Amino acid sequence: MEPSEKTAWFSLLINLLLVAIKASLALLSGSLAIKADTIHSLTDVVSATVILIGIKISKRSSRSFPYGLYKVENLVALGTSLLIFLAGYEIVLAVLRGSAQIIPTQLPLAVGGISLTILITFLFSRYELKQGIKTGSPSLIADSRHIWTDMLSSVVILTSLLGSALGFAVDRYAALIVVLFIGRIAFIIMFDAVRVLLDASLAPEYLNRVREIVIADPRVEQINELRARNAGRYKFVELDLTLRIRTLEKGHLVAEKIKQRIKESLENVDHVLIHYEPCQKEHLVLGLPLSADRQTISEHFGEAPFFRLVTLHSSDLAVTVDSTLSNPYINKEKAKGIKVANWLLESGLDIMIVRQDLAGKGPGFVLGNSDCEILIVSESDADAALAGVKKELGRPNLGL
After folding, report:
1. Element (H, E) at 165
2. Which terminus has fewer CB within 10 Å in the chain: N or C?
């Protein structure tokens, strides 16, 4: 039995206990407020039962419901809000139909019993809210708020009983105050349930977290569209991305990696749909690791003091930018090659020209996974190597 289901069973038992305590106190004291709160707790028993059924049903899927029945929990939460409104209505009727103000009897027993219900509801509402947030269950969160209103209404009732002990007949007014608590929490639960049922977007904070995970992948050029919604406790994410790729096979691998990261980083993500398209670049960026003389190609990738980045126009391979940058990670002790590779990819690198084979090494994996082509040349002179690469790129069917 999963945690949400265990908590739902616990909620049902707690509510049955509260009904028994309040019904006994209502009979012994004659308090209108306690009678009203007993009606409230009876609706709690019904809603707890419905929540338990909803949790069991929501885990199922079928051919007619391929996305699962997760929203059953939100329907249950909506039904719970209606039951809370009903409880408030019943209390108002009891107040309006009542005769003169009644001072409850058996006050010491009533005060002790209501104090016990306050302690029970406080502890359980905190526990159920924690479990609801942990499991992402909207019905458990709704029920924890429902239980919290029980505690608040019991506090009001305790106050009215203490007032009665001093000779103030405030029992009826206490019952009306309970109605205000009930109406407020019912509206909050109803509003949250309706938002999910209408596929409202998740909170901006959650969308920003998804955006951070996606952009952290150097192969993502930009996010064209990001949408996410709730269905019960589960979340559905849809992405439209532009990727730095040249083949559909590579795009599929990148999309699967991003899906995996999202599901590992965020809880209760059931489905991630990614549509992607290759980045149509007007320019190609070629990179060369340079030695200290800034002309010879360095034999060591991560320890090269300089990197030359040459931007070519895709149509005629004309040079539009030619710059030499200092290696910002040359003094790093660990993983400098990988850090340099990521740095170059952030600059839009398409082709890396080197003299040593990077296969099986960290930088080679980083560049290869980002669909950056690695060309091994024999020339040590950077200008000669660059001219040779431009000549190869200009041949038919060999361009990028």
Report:
1. helix 138-165
2. N
Residue 200 is given by DSSP the state: P
Domains of the chain: 3-197 (1.20.1510.10), 204-278 (3.30.70.1350), 283-393 (3.30.420.130)
- Alpha-carbon span 232 to 235, nearest angstrom: 8
318: part of which helix (H) or strand (E)? none
Amino acid code (one letter) for 379: E
Query: Cα dist. 155→18, 30, 95, 149, 317 in Å?
Result: 14, 18, 18, 10, 79
pLDDT higher than 90, residue 353: yes
Asked whether the beta carbons of 309 and 287 are under 8 A apart, the reply is: yes
Cα separation, 382 vs 222, in Å, equals: 32
State pLDDT tens for residues 296-305.
Answer: 999 989 899 9
Q: How many CA atoms lie within 13 A of 189 on its CB side?
A: 33
| pTM exceeds 0.70 for this model | no
pLDDT tens, 22-53?
888 878 877 767 777 777 677 777 667 766 76
Gyration radius of the chain over CA positions? 33
CA distance 243 to 383: 30
Give residues with Cβ within 8 angstroms of 211, minimum separation 6.
Answer: 223, 226
Amino acid at 349: L
How many residues in the chain?
Answer: 400
Q: Which pLDDT value is given to residue 397?
A: 43
CA distance 89 to 279: 60
312: closest CA among 372, 374, 247, 399?
A: 399
